[in-house]
Design brief:
- By secondary structure, the chain is an all-beta fold.
- It has strands at 12-16, 22-28, 34-36, 40-47, 54-60.
- The protein has one domain (12-60).
- The strands form two sheets. The protein has a three-stranded antiparallel beta sheet, with no helix packed on it.
- A hairpin with a 6-residue loop joins strand 4 (40-47) and strand 5 (54-60).
- The relative contact order is 0.24.
């Protein structure tokens, strides 16, 4: 049986600096867990072939 994937949108708290750069700070999961982002390790444009769509992917710590 093939694995099924679904896209989920979650709230994110972020800052925007004076040059317009977006800096995510918190991720709010649906179950109430809040994940604090201490550091952005990597940022790139990305697409999702499994569920469709595209945007900016952040690798965070």
């Amino acid at each position: 049986m093939a694995t099924q994937y679904r896209k989920a949108y979650v709230p994110v708290t972020l800052d925007v600096d004076k040059e317009g750069a977006i800096l995510p700070r918190l991720i709010w999961w649906d179950n109430g867990v809040i994940f604090q982002i201490d550091q952005i390790l990597y940022k790139c444009r990305a697409t999702s072939k499994k569920v469709g769509g595209g945007g900016i992917r952040y690798t965070v710590q």
